[in-house]
TrEMBL record:
The chain crosses the membrane at residues 12-32, 52-72, 79-97, 109-129, 141-161, 167-186, 198-218, 230-247, 267-292, 304-325, 332-351, 357-379, 400-417, 464-485. Its main location: membrane. This is DHA2 family efflux MFS transporter permease subunit. It is found in: Cell membrane. Keywords: Cell membrane, Membrane, Transmembrane, Transmembrane helix, Transport. Belongs to the major facilitator superfamily. EmrB family. GO terms for cellular component: plasma membrane.
Length: 510
């Protein structure tokens, strides 16, 4: 079946299967965030260690997604989806029965190896199945998966952690993963075109060292400090490997990740904005539950419910944003959305030990409202400038950068928070000691413990608000970049003899 006939009658059944599989995958990505404090206590490990359940998941996505362009072009989408769902299901089962943190982390990594294929596969099917004039609306509904699933995760997780063990999180996901797998086996159709391309093993090794080294270095800085040889050594190793990886891709006829697509200016701009937004978005999803549960002592259930209105808001706005994109383009939406994000993120820097629950709900909901107007319109506008045959590389590049930047950004923000918390705790402790009367009797053990707990809460609050301040400046950078967005249409391919001539069509500035 050719592309034109597919676009005239999109395979909605196959797309629905992919939507459901991607939703379960994305839900799992953030489902664990609310459970991190409980898992930390059960296995008696540090926050920087337990954080790997979240950042490690994104890291595996970041390592494997570059290879997704190869898999999508070489393997039929039906076989690829079955393989991805099989890995995801096995990982979920392993995490559910894990007797130790190491086994739990291994289960998450296997989960991620299946998840890494699902979003690029869905995006390529969507770009193949819908003509450009309908892509905004179609990708708006895709936003329901990409945004609502991660945003809904904390609410579901909060309820489960409140009433059951954290293992129930994986027990709940397992039957849905199995249902997706069964439907994929019996109902999935082949849609995307195939090419005879090969996987470059050296490129895969270099990308793994690059992204793995960078993330490990940023994650370890919270415990070891920036001056530790392991920290700066792994960051330098990752940077060198990334440079070698990029150079190798530029000199290959069939690269694993096609960096030449950055010759298209709007795609390059959309990637830059997506990186910045991912850092702000994923870090916020980690910092908010930490403030609500650890500093305020709010239950996991109420912590999850706090995020529910934001998830519902994004769900309502996503299809609407898609239609607005088709009509007005990405720049207007991005400018409005980013302005809302900047204001609400800055307001998070004013959190106190007495901030009301309603205030937190409104702040988080409006932040998600702004975010819903940015991610999909910017990404779709960039993809629209690429030729059809470059779509697998474009989606692979976008998803790689989003996962890696989100993982590194989260690790970076946690490191900033930890360092600020440590320094603030020392200052507060010294200040408390200086105020004590030297002639007075020492405080009782109970009073001393209460004072220590209060100091730690104050210090962590200072660390979290400082991290939100850094996140605000990051969002400002995205706003500056969004000013340069221009509306584009994809290149038109016309056959002249045996050569395909690409003619880029740019329409007027918005």
């Amino acid at each position: 079946m050719d592309i034109e006939s597919i676009q005239k009658k999109p395979p909605y059944g196959a797309i629905a299967i992919l939507f459901f599989a991607a939703f379960v995958s994305f839900l799992t990505n953030t489902l664990i965030n609310i459970a991190l404090p409980s898992i930390k206590e059960e296995f008696d490990i540090s926050m920087s260690t337990v954080q790997w359940l979240a950042t490690g998941y994104m890291l595996i996505n970041g390592i494997l997604i570059p290879a997704s362009a190869f898999f999508i072009q070489r393997i039929s989408n039906r076989i690829l989806l079955i393989l991805a769902l099989s890995l995801f299901t096995i990982g979920t089962l392993l995490a559910s029965v894990s007797p130790s943190f190491g086994v739990l982390l291994a289960g998450r990594m296997i989960q991620a190896s299946g998840s890494a294929i699902m979003m690029p596969l869905l995006m390529n099917v969507m770009l193949t199945a819908f003509p450009v004039e309908k892509r905004g609306t179609a990708m708006g509904f895709f936003g329901l998966v990409m945004i609502v699933a991660p945003a809904t995760g904390p609410t579901l997780s909060g309820y489960i952690i409140e009433h059951y063990s954290w293992r129930t999180l994986f027990d709940v996901i397992l039957p849905f993963a199995l249902i997706c797998l069964i439907f994929a086996i019996f109902k999935m159709k082949n849609i995307t075109p195939l090419k005879n391309v090969r996987l470059d093993v050296l490129s895969l090794i270099l990308s793994s060292i690059a992204f793995g080294g960078l993330l490990y270095g940023f994650s370890s800085a919270g415990d070891k400090g920036w001056g530790d040889p392991i920290v700066y050594g792994t960051i330098v190793l990752g940077t060198v490997a990334l440079i070698l990886f990029i150079i190798r891709q530029l000199f290959m006829d069939e690269p694993m990740l096609e960096f030449r697509i950055y010759k298209h200016p709007m795609f390059a701009l959309s990637s830059a904005i997506s990186i910045v937004i991912s850092i702000s978005m994923f870090s916020g999803m980690i910092l908010t539950p930490m403030y609500v549960q650890t500093v305020r002592g709010i239950s996991p259930m109420d912590s999850g419910l706090l995020m529910l209105p934001g998830a519902l808001m994004m769900g309502i706005m996503s299809p609407i944003t898609g239609r607005l994109f088709d009509k007005y383009g990405a720049r207007a939406l991005a400018l409005v959305g980013l302005t809302i994000m900047i204001v609400t993120t800055y307001l998070f820097t004013g959190l106190t030990l007495e901030t009301s629950y309603l205030h937190l709900i409104l702040l988080y909901t409006f932040r998600m409202f702004g975010m819903s107007m940015v991610m999909m319109p910017v990404m779709t506008n960039g993809m629209n400038q690429l030729p059809m045959q470059m779509n697998p590389h474009g989606t692979a590049m976008n998803n790689t950068l989003q996962q890696v930047s989100g993982a590194i950004g989260t690790a970076f923000m946690i490191t900033i928070m930890n360092k600020r918390t440590e320094s603030s705790a020392k200052e507060l402790a010294a200040d408390a000691m200086s105020k004590m009367d030297a002639n007075a009797a020492p405080p009782s053990a109970e009073a001393a413990a209460e004072m220590k707990l209060h100091i730690m809460h104050e210090a962590m609050l200072d660390g979290i608000t400082h991290a939100f301040l850094i996140s605000t400046f990051i969002a400002v950078l995205a706003l500056i970049l969004a000013v340069f967005i221009r509306r584009v249409k994809p290149p038109v391919q016309s056959e002249q003899g045996n050569k395909s001539v690409i003619k880029s069509k740019r329409i007027a500035t918005e």
